[in-house]
Each structure stands twice: as C-alpha cells, then as structure tokens.
Specification:
Blueprint: E1 4-6, H1 13-16, H2 24-41, H3 43-54, H4 65-74, H5 77-95, E2 104-107, E3 110-118, E4 121-125, H6 134-146, E5 151-156, H7 166-175, E6 179-182, H8 185-194, E7 204-206, H9 211-220, E8 226-227, E9 235-240, H10 246-257, E10 264-269, H11 272-286, H12 292-299, E11 303-306, H13 310-320, E12 324-328, H14 332-336, E13 344-347, H15 353-358, E14 384-392, H16 394-410, H17 414-428
Parallel strand pairs: 1-11, 4-5, 4-7, 5-6, 7-8, 9-10, 9-12, 10-11, 12-13
Antiparallel strand pairs: 2-3, 3-14
Helix pairs in contact: 2-3, 2-8, 2-9, 3-8, 4-7, 5-6, 5-7, 6-7, 8-9, 10-11, 10-12, 16-17
Length: 431
C-alpha cells in the first residue's frame, strides 16, 4: 500500500477512484467472436475454448449424477457442516425478502395490485479459476430456489483433470441444482445466453467474474438476455479511525486482495499514523499467505488515503461506491446513515467482510467498478419479476374517463381516447 494521499482535493478524486482495467477496445471484438463461435458451433466451440483457456479436454459437458454423488463423499465433514450453517442463514435472510402486495383502490372503483412471479429460466455462473467459489452457489442458488425458478442452469470451469471441485457440486446438491456444466469464462455466459446442444438457454444470467465474463454479460444484454449486474473484479474500501484494530484492518484488506491480481482495496483513515501501523501488519500477514503473489499484485492497484474531515471521507466513499465497505470507526452507525453508494456495508471491528462472503446471510454477489451508484446486490427480487394488474368497475371507469380522454387528446392519440370514450358513452346510456 505505497500509494498514499493526504487530504486529496476533489479534482484528484476521479483519478483515485479508477479501478484496474484492460484495454476494452480489443476486449469487445474478442467477446463477439466467442459469441459467434458458440452460436454457430455449439458444444464443439465450448470444448475448444475449454481446451484453450482451461487446458483440459472435456468429453461430456454436463456433470453426471454419479459425479455429484461422489462429490459428497470427497467433501470434508467439517466443510459440509459449514455449508449447511451458511445455507441456513442465507435462506433465512432471503426468505424475509418475500413481499405480499396489497390491492389498492386508487380511485372509487379503480383497483390496482402487483404480483411477483419467478423468472422461469436462470443461469448461474460460478467462478473457479484461481479459487473454487462454492459459496457463490449458495448465494445464487438459494434465492433462485426460493423464487421457484423452474429451470436453474449452473456453469463453472473444470480443473486440469476435467473435474469440478467437490465443494461446488456438494453445495449445488444442497441447493437442489442438477443441471451443472463444465464450462467456464466468457464462453459459459455465451452458452447460457444462446444455448447449445447441451446447455439450455436462459432468460437471465447471474454471477461474478473477471473482466471478460463481465464484458460478455454486457454484450448479451443487446440480444435480449437480462443480467444481474456488471459484477467484475472484487473490491473493498475500509474506513478506519483510532478505534480500529490495525491487525483486523490489514486482514480485511488482504482478504479482498487475494481474490485476484485485478482486485482493488482502498484504505481510508483519519490520521497518517494509522496508515503506517496497518501497512506494517499487512507486511507481516502477507508473508504467511499461500496466495501471497496474487495479493501483492492486487495491492499495487490499491491506495491509502487520509481524510482528517469525516464529511470529506464520506463524500469520497459515496463517490467511489465500493462493492464492500467496512466502517471500522467508533461512530460507524452514524457514518453508515450517510452512505448512499455501496454494495454491502460492514459495521464495527467485529464485522469482517468475510462474514458476508460466506455465512452471515447477506448476498455476496454485488456491483463493482462504481456500479453501486445505480445497481443493488443480488436479492430474492433479482430472480423475480413483477406484473401489475388493474380492474375497473363501470363506476370506476366513468369516474376516470374525463381525465384519460383529456390526456389522450392532448397527446393526439385518438384511438386511446376512443377506447375510453366508447365505453363511457355506453355507460351513460345505461348499457
């Protein structure tokens, strides 16, 4: 964390909030070629891309029932228990998001109401490149099941032996997902968006991924496929003051940095001395990490910023709009009330971001790259759509008819006006 800024003026903020990225001018044409190949060659294209990008030849794309059953035996009992506890908390949190809509009488005789219905076919992308993210199976699969989506398709990359990590398959079995495919990266998104001989086409695609996955998700939107959000490389901002434990903060920063070399962490503090203490702890803890080289590379994309004024700090947080935000400060609840842009917020010294990643119950599929300014994280509603209904009695239409006819006439839409007028005249005649 060598990049230190002291009370930076707002004119510098656009530079400070930049995330690491690759040249997008070359990225989208490459993604379009992947889409074209998957559309024209189907399964064969997926197998070729898997061999090229994952270094393994795949005969059968769909995971067999035998492989799923074997995964349960290969998963450690303590991990099984942990997955079940996490799944229970995630289920509780998402079940609580169910909404019962009331029928409203907006005017006498005019009734309106909503009904939520599941998105029938959804695709879940589970990253598995540098780490098998079985926790994402729970985060996406559980709300999909609660929403009663009729078809759930899961794609995840195989390892060098052509297998899926047992914990991913075990988590999928716990959730009740059976259509699992050994397909990773951008080609998995294309497969779920357009369908192949093996992989069913879906209506909406969920799941985090690298910039290639994110770019492909954005492209398929142009073809009528919905996505959860632009969820790219992971990021964390920690806001700490003298009440924070430097070792805790260092651990939190490293926990996010180890995700990938394109991850980013931001340390925001109210005094420069705290930066030095946290940096020292980072150096000590870094030496013990198996993913040290990844974390080190991610730290090069990271910054330490000192804001002596709390209001300036909060303004910067809202400008950055972090995917994850930890408020390790004595007035964290007061500061939390001022947060407008963030994917998920963690309050106090004993609320590590890792809790949200795994087992507290909240969803860890969150908007990155500043998209928290306009996107929410995944929730139960992400897997549902709302249909509106209305029913007007004769009296209800008669009461609104003048309003509707006047507005339609003003917009010069005579057929709209007539659709009400013809009814009103019959009502007035007693028909």
């Amino acid at each position: 964390m060598n990049n230190l800024y002291i009370n930076p003026v707002e004119s510098l903020w656009p530079e400070l909030i930049k995330r690491p990225s690759i040249d997008r001018s070359a990225l989208f044409p490459l993604m379009e070629k992947i889409i074209e190949a998957v559309q024209t060659e189907g399964d064969q294209a997926l197998k070729q891309f898997t061999e090229k990008f994952d270094g393994v030849e795949i005969e059968q794309l769909q995971v067999s029932q035998k492989e799923i059953e074997s995964a349960e035996k290969l998963t450690d009992e303590s991990l099984k228990t942990a997955i079940k506890i996490a799944a229970n908390n995630i289920e509780k949190f998402h079940l609580a998001q169910s909404i019962d809509y009331a029928k409203i009488e907006t005017s006498p005789g005019v009734f309106c109401w909503n009904k939520s219905t599941p998105i029938e076919k959804v695709g879940l992308y589970i990253p598995g490149g540098t780490a098998p993210l079985f926790s994402t199976v729970l985060m996406l699969g559980i709300p999909a099941k609660i929403a009663n989506c009729s078809e759930i398709v899961l794609c995840t990359p195989p390892d060098k032996t052509g297998k899926i990590h047992p914990a991913i398959l075990y988590a999928a079995k716990q959730v009740g997902i059976e259509k699992i495919f050994k397909v990773g990266g951008a080609q998995a998104i294309a497969a779920m968006a357009f369908g192949t001989e093996s992989v069913p086409r879906v209506y909406k695609i969920f799941g985090p991924g690298n910039q290639y996955v994110t770019a492909l998700k954005q492209l398929v939107q142009l073809n009528g496929i919905s996505i959860d959000m632009p969820a790219g490389p992971s990021e964390l901002l920690v806001y700490a003051d003298e009440s924070a434990d430097p070792d805790f903060v260092a651990a939190d920063l490293l926990s996010q940095a180890e995700h990938g070399i394109d991850s980013q962490v931001i340390l925001l503090v109210n005094n420069e001395n705290l930066v030095e203490e946290i940096a020292s702890s980072i150096d000590r803890q870094l030496e013990e990490l198996p993913r040290k080289s990844i974390a080190q590379k991610a730290l090069e994309n990271s910054r330490s910023i000192v804001f002596e004024d709390n209001n300036q700090a909060v303004a910067f947080i809202n400008t950055y709009a972090p995917e994850h935000l930890i408020l390790a400060s004595k007035d964290c609840k007061h500061t939390a009330d001022k947060i407008k842009n963030a994917g998920s917020v963690f309050l106090g010294n004993y609320s590590p971001e890792s809790a949200g990643d795994y087992a507290s119950g909240t969803n860890h599929t969150l908007p990155t790259n500043g998209f928290a300014k306009m996107y929410s994280g995944v929730s139960l509603s992400s897997f549902m759509k709302t249909i509106t209904f209305q029913e007007l009695t004769k009296e209800g239409l008669a009461g609104l008819s003048k309003t509707i006819e006047t507005m339609a006439a003003a917009e010069q839409l005579s057929a709209h006006e007539n659709a009400v007028k013809i009814r009103r005249e019959k009502i007035e005649k007693g028909n």
